[in-house]
Amino acid sequence: MNPLLELTDVGIEFPTPNGPFCALQNVNLKIKKGEFISLIGHSGCGKSTVLNIVAGLYQATQGGVVLGGKEVNEPGPERAVVFQNHSLLPWLTAYENVELAVKRVFKGKKSKAEMKEWIEHNLELVHMSHALHKRPDEISGGMKQRVGIARALSMEPQVLLMDEPFGALDALTRAHLQDSLMEIQKELNNTVIMITHDVDEAVLLSDRIVMMTNGPSATIGEILDVELERPRNRIQLADDPTYNKYRQQVLSFLYEKQRKPDVEAPAKKAATSESKTEKVA
Amino acid sequence: MSIALSNIAWLEPVVKIAKGENVAENAQLIIKSVGLPLAGILVFLLVWHAAASNINTSLGQFPGPADVVEQSQSLWTEHLTEREKAEAFYERQEKRNADRVANDPSYVPKIREYTGKPTYIDQIGTSLVTVLSGFLLASAIAIPFGIVIGLSANLYSAFNPVIQIFKPVSPLAWLPLVTMVVSALYVSDDPMVAKSFVTSMITVMLCCLWPTVINTAVGVASIPKDLINVSQVLRLSYLEHVRKIVLPSSIPMVFTGLRLSLGIAWMVLIAAEMLAQNPGLGKFVWDEFQNGSSDSLGRIMVAVITIGIIGFLLDRIMLMIQRRVSWDKSAALR
């Protein structure tokens, strides 16, 4: 089967006053329809950059992204994004936030009544039917993120992009939302790329985990196929040896092979500042 | 609404006392919300009275609170007498016209305007109309302009020096130029509005444009990146982007600018009217000063207090509108 989404030799350089900074290079990835992919890596490794390139918010300076036979060079609703900080418009209710997207995507394709039904259906998928007409500042962080997911789903995207969607939530809310996401995924079988820094989340949700090396010039280090039966249950998996093996593989990539040089950095900085003060003295 | 709210704030304990709940606590609340402001005003009146009786001018003693009360009453009586005169004039005219039509059916009656001098109340009305037209005109220019330069960092850098230079210019500097330009361009045999009105209005506009421009531009430029990303993913067009994302998001800042602008407009107006001889409060103050009767200083003091109260009310009204329009109820509104 042909891949739905293909990243070929993607790289990006940002201009800085000290010359171009290469954030990402040689990223090659093929994603099949209905696959759930996680991108994991230390912060600053360029996982968000990859997602933003697929979303079209950044332009790759090398290589390119092809979605369903068409090159991606601008943002669009067929690549809906769930942002880390929900990004709901604070002056609109949950319903109106989804409505804005639905009206934009289905203008002329759905009648008014159909649109209303579709908006309500998507909010029901994320269990938000009870708060249709609440504004973002009247609902909790987890609920905001649910509405954000509903908005993205309502666009019927070819690929759903999620940028650390649960990163800002507490552990319990996060677990609830992960379960909701698995439920939705079972029903809709979307193609998803999700960024995360949570190893359990990656193993629990993904079909494949893409592990990224540290930047600058970050690239894909390893790809891990997660062959766990669905539906997956977090409580049963906690004792499952295969699950723990996958977890262990991701952890060893992150903390042994790609150990963050951060740990040594403060010591170095302290040393340089010391030498500076000596010079001043 | 805010006026109403502040009323409710002290009415509530009154109602509770009437019901006999927590009498002592509620009495304290009333003292705090009503008593303290009243005490402040009372102290001010005493100081004013004491100071006024010690200042002597060529037009007599500086007006104290009592003179101001007396003069405001006399201004009100003058207003009423003038209105009565006007009514009597129109009645006489109507009767005369009716008589002539009865005698000669082909006669088309002419209606002549009453030409008595404007009263103090009329002058307040003129001032309000002038300031509001100048302010609305300024807003109609400043908000779109602010949005356009706020959306583009390059345009903002380009226009910022010009804005910063014109912002601190006093109305008195603009006025001669505006007067000459209006005289040259506003030529009409049957003018809809007086030249002095146009001059004052344009001067007000030139002075109160800038806070709205700057605050709108800053509000637009500081829209969260996330919301702009949403707009891009939805592929909103420029106009839709402005209407659905930019405008609502920058509304709180736009109102901050509008309130500053209206405050400036009101201050500028008085100076502009003095010099342009637009028949409003500014002209009233100037005429009384030129008149130099023993009542003049008292009347000017009445105008000073009127100007203050109206300025305060205008700001409260803007605040009310902001509370209605803005989604951001969490912003501190004061």
How do the helices and strands follow one another from N- to C-terminus of chain A? EEEHEEEHHHEHEHEEHHH
* CATH class bucket of the largest domain in chain B: Mainly Alpha
Oligomer category: heterodimer
Shape of chain A: globular
Contiguous runs where pLDDT drops below 50 for at least 5 residues of chain B: 1-7
How many domains of chain B? The number is 2
Shape assignment of chain B: globular
Give the largest interface pair and sizes.
Answer: A-B, 22 and 18 residues
Low-pLDDT runs of chain A: 263-281
What keyword list fits this structure?
heterodimer; A: 281 residues; alpha/beta; Rossmann fold; 4-stranded antiparallel sheet; 9 helices; 40% helix; 22% strand; disordered C terminus; B: 334 residues; mainly alpha; MetI-like fold; 2 domains; two-stranded antiparallel ribbon; 11 helices; 2 strands; 1% strand; globular; disordered N terminus
Explained architecture:
- The complex is a heterodimer of chains A (281) and B (334).
- With 281 residues, chain A is an alpha/beta fold.
- Chain A is built from nine helices and ten strands.
- Chain A has helices spanning 47-55, 94-106, 112-125, 141-154, 171-188, 199-205, 234-237, 241-257, 265-280; strands at residues 5-16, 19-31, 36-40, 62-67, 70-71, 81-82, 159-163, 191-196, 208-212, 220-225.
- A six-stranded mixed beta sheet of chain A has the order 6-7-8-3-9-10, sandwiched between helices. In chain A, strands 2-1-4-5 form a four-stranded antiparallel beta sheet, covered by helices on one side.
- Mean pLDDT of chain A is 88; it is low at 263-281.
- Chain B is mainly α.
- Chain B has eleven helices and two strands.
- Chain B has a two-stranded antiparallel ribbon with strand order 1-2.
- Mean pLDDT of chain B is 87; it is low at 1-7.
- At the A-B interface, helix 2 of A face helix 8 and helix 9 of B.
